[in-house]
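REVIEWER CHECKLIST
Item 1: Sequence provided? yes
Item 2: Single chain? yes
Item 3: Sequence as submitted:
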Amino acid sequence: MVRTSCFPSGPLSKVSHLELSYPGPPEKAVNDAANALQYEINQLKRVSVRLDSLAGQLPSMEDEIMSISGNVRSNAVLLELVLALRIRQA
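Item 4: Structure as written out by the authors:
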């Protein structure tokens, strides 16, 4: 099921959130959910790289952008660690 964004206008108005539902055995659901989460983790890492490249182009905001980029990257790494630990336990 796909929900529309809670952002009424502007560039974020086209953002959609995917609600995943998993028919079938629980093992398949875990695997599908893990794959979906890994995809999002990879997306976060790509965002971080893009922010890094933009930081150099905006010297007046470079420190702030680099800080945000580092936070995004750190969150991606933490999510990846949690995913790896949970999948191991399953």
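Item 5: Key structural point noted by reviewer: Residues 24-89 form one domain.
Item 6: Recommendation: ____
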